[in-house]
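Homework-ish question, so no full write-ups if that breaks the rules, but can someone show me the predicted structure for this set?
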Amino acid sequence: MEGVKEVVFLSGKGGAGKTSILGGIYSLMNGKKAVVDCDVDAANLFLILGGQVKEEKPFYGSKKAEIKRDKCKECGLCKDICSFGAINEFLMVDPILCEGCGSCFVFCPHSAVSLEEKRAGTIYIGETKRGDLFLYAELFPGEENSGKLVQALREEARKRAKEMGFSLILMDGSPGIGCPVISSVAGVDLMIALCEPQSSSIHDLLRLLELSEHFRIKTALLINKSDVNPWLSEKLKRIAEEKGLPLLGEIPYDPLINEAQREGKTIVEYSRDSKSSKALQRVYERFSKILEELR
Amino acid sequence: MRIAFASGKGGTGKTTLAVNMAYLFSLSGFKVEFLDLDVEEPDGHIFLKPQIESIVPVKVFIPLFDKERCTFCQKCVQACSFYAIFMLGKDILLFQELCHSCKLCLRICEEKAIKEGEREVGVVRIGKADSSLSFIEGRLNVREPRPMPVIEAVKSHCKGGDVQIIDAPPGTACPFVRSVYDSDFVVLVTEPTPFGLHDLEKCVSFLKSIKRPFGLVINKERGKFPPLEEYVSQNQILVLGRIQEDLRIAKALSEGKILLNELPEYRVHFEEIFSNLKRAIHGRS
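A: Not a homework solution, just the prediction itself:
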């Protein structure tokens, strides 16, 4: 099947190394491709892929209610019907609790409520240091609709990748399994599930795999910091085998990954001979094979 | 007193700090409630190993459509801000994952063709880790996009011990905000890397905007990271303590162990953070 292929890196638990590992694999790849950071409330990939922002687009999330003092007769109906407890006894709307449903706007007998679309973040479109198309976004702190922003990013990336004739989009995801993760996993061609040999990381991976099974997403497993607990790494391999997931490989714990990050580089750019770069080379070869099979 | 542990970046050690601080509070004679609000990936139980006494489903409102009464006027469809209601000819459908349970449709329907229904989106698991350490965990059902109802349900099960310790979800979006919003104090946990610093800055800017007092724990330290030190001193951020990077810690955590017990040489570090935390809270209250 031809067309643009999307690959997303996820882990369930945060801090498993999604961004660093994606960066390393990216550095090993040839050919034009697009890279998208879908972790919109904690976007970090640009810190190691660098490059230039060429375009910014505002992102509008949900609407927020506002009570116009000059029209308000203080009947309190809005407060009573708000399902989110967002209107207090002084009839002030708390924008953090308001989900923008519009109940107060619709039912206010004095038309004293307005519903304003609020800017919730920014989409950045640019290039990596190596000149590949690079998209990421910053959701303002506390905003909802991270899923909607991920959808907007992915649409933008697909459109541009098609125009520019790329066939691959690499995506970095958020921790968790909620709204932004569901938006970044829906309809992708391949999910790389990263996991550390750690009870909590495995617990979270199993929840993530339930999600990918539901969406019938082809998934490959990658074990990071595999030597921290070899016994649990073996357990992870058994999980992969039982679930029929291809194992992309194992990457040992390597303090150089953090040093590379401090220099604003991927581990492969920083040290091609590091033990993690060597492991990534093997991972990359298996990854390429799986990508071939997707075509 | 409600203390939230948050971080922006995932995997910096929120749960580790929260669990060990919960133990230190309970050892000093406080009645402690541990609230796991990282409902997408709740991991506190792996370390606390609580005896679960009850599991309560979290249910949210959904509209039920009475097709006999419905005149297909489309009012509910147009009013729904979340595009959760869909009408196809003489069929009316709900995309339940999109529904925010605001009940606007229920109120706007003049034909009374919408009834109150409910569905389960997660569970709250309640138990005890210790005689003075209660455990309340929210667990979002897989495939559910919206963690907020489960986060709020956990809070509603609080009995109000002396101290409530919140393990917050990563990120800086609404689940993080809901978890720290009604806390008295927030402990931010970061690691000395560019990723950690970037996400820390976002958390700090939010906490400053709501004027919430907070302190910082720098975890997994391997030599000082100058940009972080600069940021901390320029913004006069209270550093509650530092914990070194140590593979023995990683190994102990990978097995779900409590560091206080497992690596006694680190006990003094946790105790220092604990006393700085108490002092910071005391100074504010």
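Now go work out the reasoning yourself. Hint: The beta strands of chain A are 5-10, 34-37, 52-67, 113-127, 133-139, 168-172, 190-195, 219-224, 247-251.
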